[in-house]
Design goal:
3-stranded antiparallel β-sheet
């Protein structure tokens, strides 16, 4: 693009095919070119001056190369001011240094965009799952979750970010809840130590006046043979679902669901209800 003056309404766009002209040749070869007399140099394509009406006398062009060696573009300066009207080795070095800085900025922008995209995808996935998903780093500190922690674990995200799970999980109230908290802590410890997923069906956790039951899954995030963190998934079991899953030990799920849903209150705590189950 060529901008003419501070008040220019826009830029004139000039397309240079790869390998043609000075810019195209620099982009293809990744080698800088310092042209002292453009009109006498066969590598210069005079057609690039036609759209703007600009006359190129001397030019310096350097590649912008990212850290993986790929050329992202070129930097080109034209018609040096001064008595010599051509670019010196010091100019080449200065523009090359600027190209290095620009390449680093482009790499950082790409990395930031990739990280942002990954975070957006992770958030969309996490918010689409009805269960709690809690990401704990390698130190056991909370990083993010798809839901508030208090309804599931009785702890605030602020505390979970400041203290590892080993310091707040055993704090839960009753004997039954404490046992569940210790079991959950043991699952997390095993996932960190072994790098293997851990699970528990119908784990009780005491949250003050009530005890909640969860299906638990702990998935370690292993990189380079080391565990960088874990994903803790807590799927809350309602009383009706617990009843249904208990009945599934004796009946196929369709009959278990039908039997459990036939009563206004879940069949728990030793209740006895007469029922007839017909199976083909």
């Amino acid at each position: 693009h060529i901008a003419e003056g501070a008040g220019a309404a826009g830029c004139v766009s000039v397309t240079c095919p790869m390998g043609m002209g000075v810019a195209g040749l620099v982009a293809k070869t990744s080698q800088s070119l310092n042209v002292t007399l453009a009109e006498a140099d066969p590598r210069f394509d005079p057609r690039v001056d036609q759209p703007s009406g600009y006359t190129t006398r001397s030019l310096l062009c350097v590649p912008v190369v990212e850290r993986r060696g790929q050329v992202r573009g070129v930097l080109q300066v034209l018609n040096k001011l001064g008595p010599e009207h051509c670019f010196s080795p010091a100019d080449v070095q200065q523009l090359t240094n600027f190209a290095v800085v620009l390449a680093l900025q482009l790499d950082n922008d790409d990395a930031h965009q990739l990280a942002t995209t990954r975070q957006d995808v992770q958030k969309k996935i996490m918010t689409a799952v009805p269960a709690l998903i809690l990401y704990l780093d390698r130190e056991g500190l909370a990083v993010m979750s798809n839901s508030p922690l208090e309804p599931y674990l009785g702890v605030s995200m602020t505390r979970a970010k400041m203290k590892p799970f080993s310091e707040w999980l055993p704090d839960m109230g009753s004997a039954e809840g404490e046992g569940g908290a210790r079991a959950l802590a043991a699952l997390l410890d095993a996932a960190y130590a072994q790098g293997q997923p851990q699970s528990w069906h119908d784990l009780p956790l005491d949250l003050g006046p009530v005890t909640m039951h969860y299906n638990v899954r702990v998935v370690p995030l292993v990189h380079g043979g080391a565990c960088d963190g874990v994903l803790l998934l807590l799927d809350r079991l309602s009383a009706a679902e617990r009843c249904t899953r208990t009945l599934q030990q004796y009946l196929p799920r369709p009959q278990a669901v039908a039997l459990a849903s036939a009563h206004p209150q879940p069949l728990l705590a030793g209740q006895q209800v007469a029922a007839v189950v017909l199976q083909a």
